[in-house]
Design goal:
This protein has 333 residues and is α+β, with helices and mostly antiparallel strands. The chain folds into 3 domains: 15-80, Ubiquitin-like (UB roll); 86-152; 171-332, no CATH class. It is 52% helix and 12% strand. It has helices spanning 63-80, 86-96, 100-106, 113-119, 125-136, 138-147, 154-185, 190-208, 227-232, 253-266, 271-279, 282-285, 295-308, 318-328; strands spanning 15-19, 24-39, 42-53, 59-60, 218-220, 223-225. The strands form 2 sheets. The protein has a 4-stranded antiparallel beta sheet, with helices on one face. A two-stranded antiparallel sheet has the order 5-6. A hairpin with a 5-residue loop joins strand 3 (42-53) and strand 4 (59-60). The termini are far apart.
C-alpha cells in the first residue's frame, strides 16, 4: 500500500481482483499508461499503470496500483513545483551518516519534522529549498552542523563530521583528476578550464544518467565555475596552465573519451566565446550570481541538448558547439 515515503514496488504479474463488469474475481493484467490527476487544485500528468480484467478487458481497481499512481502523481507535483523528490529526502541522512532526529535539529526544525517528510508529508517550498541546499552544498551543511554541535549528541556530531570529511575527499578527487588531465594534455586558461568542466559534467550526465563529479559548480559573473579548481589555478590568470602532471588511476576510457571530445569541440573557441555560450544556457541564466547551479537543472538541460541536436555519441558534440557559435558569433565582435 502507498503511504508517502513507504511505497514498495510490486511485481507486474497476473493477480486476481474483483471485476465489477464480470461481477466476480478474475485475473488481471497491467499496462503502463499516460495518466493525469488533481493535486492541490491543479492537474498533473504522469506515467502510471492501469489494471484490466483478463476476461472482459475492462478496467479494474487494484489497491497496490492505485497507491503506485498516487506516488507517481505526487512525484509529478514535486517535479513541476521544484519540490525535492522523496528519494532525495531519503538519501540525505544516508549521505551525511546522521539520524533523522539530529538532522532535524541541525536544520532548526522540530525533532520529528524530517521523519514526517519521509513517512507522510510533502515539504513546502521553503523546507524543500533548504533540503535541496544541504543536498547540494556540503560546506553549507557543515556550517549548520558546527553551529548545532551542542544541540545533538557528541557521537552523532562526530559520525556526521567524519562523513563530511570523507565526502569532501571523494568530491574533489575525480574533479581534480579531470582538471589535471586537461591541463596536462591541452593549453587552456583557468577560465576555459572551468567552462570545460561544466560541459563535461553536463554531457556526461546526458549520456550516462549520472554525474562524473559530485562537486557542484556555481554561477559566477563570467559563467559556471568550480571554485576549488579556480583557486587552485588562480595564479595563472589569463595564461595557459602548465603545472599538472596527470597520473590516471581514476578516469576510465569512457570518461577520457568524453573529456577529449568536449575539450576538442569547445576549447577551440576561447574564453570569451565560452562565456557567451554559457550565458545563453539555462543552468547559468536561471541561477543567481554566486549560487550553486542545481544538478537537476544542469542534467535536464543537457539531456534536452543531446536529444534536440541528435547527439548519439561523444564525437557528435560538435553539432551543438558549432550551432552555438553560429548563433551567437555576432556577440564576440
Amino acid at each position: 500500500m502507498y503511504k508517502q515515503g513507504t511505497f514498495v514496488s510490486y511485481k507486474v504479474n497476473m493477480n486476481k481482483t474483483f471485476c465489477e463488469n464480470c461481477r466476480k474475481v478474475n485475473e488481471y493484467f497491467i499496462k503502463e499508461e499516460n495518466l493525469s490527476g488533481s493535486l492541490k487544485g491543479n492537474i498533473y500528468s504522469y506515467k502510471g499503470k492501469k489494471a484490466y480484467c483478463k476476461k472482459c478487458h475492462k478496467a479494474v481497481f487494484v489497491h497496490e496500483i492505485n497507491d503506485y499512481n498516487l506516488y507517481k502523481l505526487n512525484e509529478s507535483y514535486r517535479k513541476k513545483n521544484n519540490i525535492i523528490s522523496l528519494d532525495d529526502i531519503k538519501d540525505i541522512p544516508k549521505k551525511y551518516n546522521i539520524g533523522k532526529r539530529p538532522l532535524s535539529i541541525v536544520l532548526g526544525w522540530g525533532e520529528l519534522t524530517y521523519s514526517r517528510f519521509i513517512e507522510a508529508d510533502t515539504p513546502t517550498k521553503e523546507y524543500s529549498e533548504t533540503l535541496i541546499k544541504i543536498r547540494d552544498d556540503i560546506d553549507y551543511f557543515e556550517k549548520l552542523l558546527d553551529n548545532s554541535k551542542d544541540k545533538i549528541s557528541k557521537i552523532a556530531y562526530e559520525k556526521c563530521k567524519k562523513r563530511i570529511r570523507e565526502l569532501k575527499t571523494l568530491e574533489a578527487t575525480k574533479l581534480s583528476a579531470t582538471a589535471d588531465y586537461i591541463t596536462d594534455n591541452y593549453d587552456v586558461t583557468n577560465l576555459v578550464l572551468n567552462k570545460l568542466l561544466y560541459y563535461i559534467q553536463g554531457f556526461y550526465y546526458a549520456f550516462y544518467d549520472k554525474f562524473i563529479f559530485d562537486e557542484n559548480c556555481k554561477a559566477w559573473q563570467y559563467g559556471p565555475v568550480y571554485g576549488t579548481q579556480y583557486y587552485k589555478y588562480k595564479e595563472f590568470k589569463d595564461n595557459p596552465i602548465n603545472i599538472a602532471i596527470f597520473e590516471n588511476d581514476l578516469l576510465n576510457e569512457e570518461e577520457i573519451n568524453l573529456i577529449n571530445n568536449v575539450v576538442k569541440f569547445f576549447s577551440c573557441y576561447g574564453g570569451n566565446v565560452l562565456i557567451e555560450f554559457t550565458h545563453h544556457e539555462q543552468p547559468w541564466s536561471m541561477t543567481k550570481n554566486n549560487k550553486i547551479i542545481k544538478k537537476e537543472l544542469l542534467g535536464s538541460f543537457f539531456k534536452e541538448i543531446k536529444k534536440d541536436y541528435k547527439i548519439n555519441k561523444p564525437e557528435d558534440i560538435h553539432k551543438y558547439s558549432e550551432k552555438m557559435f553560429k548563433k551567437y558569433k555576432g556577440a564576440y565582435k
